[in-house]
Amino acid sequence: MYYDDTFRHVGEFGRYQKFLYFLICLPQIFSGIQTFLPVFILHVPDHRCASPMESQMSFALNDQNAFTNNNYTILSGEDNNKITTYFQCDILHEEIDVNSTSDDIENATTYKKEKCNTWIYDKTYFDFTFAMQSDLVCEKKADRTHAVMSFMAGLTGGSLVTGFISDFYGRKKAFMMCICLLIFPNIGLTFVTDYMIFVVLRCVSGFAVGGLLGTGFVLGMEIVGPTKRSWAGLVFEFFWAAGAMILALAAYLIRDWRHLNLVMSVPPVLFLSYIWLVPESPRWLLIKGKIQEAEAILEKTARLNKRFLPSDTLEKISFASKHRGLPLWKACTHPIIMYQLTVILFGWMIVSMVFYGLAMNSGNIGGNLYLNFFMSSFAELIGFAGCLAALHKMGRKPVFAISVLISGAACLLTIFPVLYASTEYQWTAMVLSTLGKVNVSAAFAVMFLYSGEIFPTVIRNSALGIAAFFARVGGMIAPYIIDIAAYIEHDIGKATPLLIFGVTAVVAGIFALKLPETKGVALPETLEDWLNFGKSGLADIEIEVSCEKLNKEEVTKSKEGNLKKKNITNYNEILLLS
């Protein structure tokens, strides 16, 4: 008997599960906020060297034309023969010898160039950012990139480490650990002045976000029934995108990085109450043989959902849970599992690469920074919403494959306006690029859902951590692919990244067509279940009947107050076809 059978009794998505699911999703808002926070707190506005008369960090340029050539010129001397020009990173001193007899002014001029150590910044969008505070410009501009990458490094480590912690020590322990790491380092960041401390705290923040995404997703998926998993997996992504949109609004209203960071870091303190509000995953408890704890949680779920859990249910499930199955290394030697795992990890890497690559490739489109960021986040919501609608009529596999293929095709089609379209038709490139991003956003959401369904319970969080690691690798590869344009001349350089994104996305979509379907199928518990899952073709059978129709066992109260059971159907036989 499988764990999914319990949902026939406790309910697939009752009142209590909705409450828990909402609580689990709320921290993902702040995961999205922390991921994109560097867009604003590490933003480097237009800048130039400061003159002695100008006070650093208090100067706001009203004349934007002063930044046309990133320079500012001052004349001095008795005959205005001394010219000092303040460029973005250098100060050029020119002195014309008015007594020179040379007709060539160049021969009568002496030049002296020096590096500057103070800057003034355009405050059109920001009053104060950490990049402005630490002057992460000119020779220190690489430090800004390192600060951004420190978060990605933490994200990668968090995905891996918390995945194993979750599988060995529990979903809730890993989840609460990540909440603590999300709160205290980010609040402390507000008061940081040292660059290295800033980098370390951002790395810790990335670790927390990586863990929250993985453990939160798994915990949310394991508390809902099989016919509600697609909904639960996709709505989880909406909270992430909503966080990015909230950040855009908050950054527009709060222009100082310290105040913005503090406002975005304090609300998660409320999540510390989850230590009392959110229980451990009953599925994980059963796998670990903690029957009484799992029974208590499931009985509470049934009671609050106004359902009834038979006493012998967990005895059957616990017997199945004792058979852990094959070790991971041995299971992965099987050709079916090897193929599925390779395609899934490759898909994660390519989808992430294309997602971040398209975002970076359209980052310099001009216009209002806050509006551009908000609309980019809104495009993700469109992709998630379209994906959610499609999953009701189609399976996971076709939605993922079609989304990736359309995204790849859009990237390839974008090459033509880049190479051949005149200026007035360049908007077609942006339309195609947006189409690619909407679809790759949908593919990202489905990949998260699909991985959560195909990996068995005994390694689910660990496997998701490994998958997330490959996704981060793809995200780190993306900027290097974008930089190819700097090494290849003319428009072909701009088209090359799109060619790479398009071809790899199409390949990932084609490979995905051979994966098994997971729609309407019980989550595998052991590695043997996973092996049989792909081997038997079980997942290729579409089960359109809702759990409510399968659940013909109804518990009603008689007039005497006794419970009666009627119309009992073997749910396990119908759902698993075994």
Automatic annotation (TrEMBL):
Keyword entries, A-Z: Membrane, Transmembrane, Transmembrane helix
Bilayer disposition of the protein: Multi-pass membrane protein
Pfam families associated with the record: Sugar_tr (PF00083)
PROSITE patterns: MFS, SUGAR_TRANSPORT_2
Gene3D superfamilies: MFS general substrate transporter like domains (1.20.1250.20)
Record's subcellular location: Membrane
Residue ranges constituting the Major facilitator superfamily (MFS) profile domain according to the UniProt record: 83-520
Transmembrane regions: 20-44, 174-193, 199-219, 231-254, 260-278, 336-358, 370-391, 398-421, 427-450, 462-482, 494-513
A GO molecular-function descriptor: transmembrane transporter activity
GO cellular component, one term: membrane
Domain of life where this protein originates: Eukaryota
The protein, known as: SLC22A4_5
Organism of origin: Mytilus edulis (Blue mussel)
